[in-house]
Recover the amino acids of this structure.
C-alpha cells in the first residue's frame, strides 16, 4: 500500500512540475536601428520574476564615411497587454559612440571623437512559444548634432 501511495504522489508531483511555465528572464538579440544606431548585438535581463523592469547592454556599429563603435545601454519596462505574450516596451537608453575605434579589419586609425546619444523608446514586444522574441520600436536619437527620428527592429532568443 505504501508503494502505491508513493507512486501516486510522485505522479502528481511530476504533473505539477511539468504544468508550470517559468518566465524567461534573459534575452539575446540582434537589433537593426534602435539604440545601437545601425546594428547591434544585445543582452537584456529582466530584474523580476515576471515581465517588468529590465536592463540591457550591447555592442554595435554605425557608419558615416568611417566606422563608429557603439555601446548601447539602457533600462526598460514591459507593460502587459491583453495578449499574454505581447508587451508595450518603454525604455530610456544611452549609446556611447566612438569614431573609428580601429576595427580589426582596418590598418589605420583616424582622429578620436566620442559622443553620447540619449535614446528614449516606446514599442511593441512579442514573446513567442518557441522562446523567441521580436520587437519594433520608435527610438528617436538625441545628441550633440540634434534630434533624429529613428526606429528599431529586434529579433532574438529568450532563455
Amino acid at each position: 500500500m505504501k508503494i502505491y501511495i508513493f507512486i501516486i504522489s510522485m505522479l502528481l508531483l511530476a504533473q505539477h512540475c511539468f504544468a508550470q511555465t517559468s518566465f524567461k528572464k534573459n534575452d539575446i538579440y540582434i537589433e537593426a536601428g534602435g539604440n545601437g544606431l545601425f546594428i547591434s548585438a544585445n543582452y537584456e535581463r529582466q530584474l523580476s520574476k515576471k515581465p517588468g523592469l529590465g536592463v540591457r547592454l550591447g555592442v554595435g556599429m554605425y557608419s558615416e564615411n568611417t566606422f563608429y563603435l557603439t555601446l548601447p545601454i539602457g533600462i526598460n519596462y514591459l507593460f502587459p497587454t491583453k495578449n499574454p505574450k505581447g508587451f508595450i516596451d518603454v525604455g530610456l537608453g544611452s549609446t556611447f559612440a566612438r569614431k573609428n575605434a580601429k576595427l580589426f579589419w582596418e590598418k589605420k586609425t583616424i582622429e578620436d571623437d566620442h559622443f553620447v546619444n540619449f535614446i528614449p523608446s516606446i514599442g511593441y514586444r512579442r514573446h513567442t512559444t518557441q522562446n523567441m522574441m521580436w520587437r519594433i520600436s520608435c527610438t528617436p536619437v538625441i545628441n550633440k548634432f540634434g534630434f533624429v527620428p529613428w526606429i528599431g527592429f529586434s529579433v532574438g532568443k529568450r532563455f
Remarks:
- The first strand starts at residue 26 and ends at 33.
- The two ends are 42 Å apart (CA to CA).
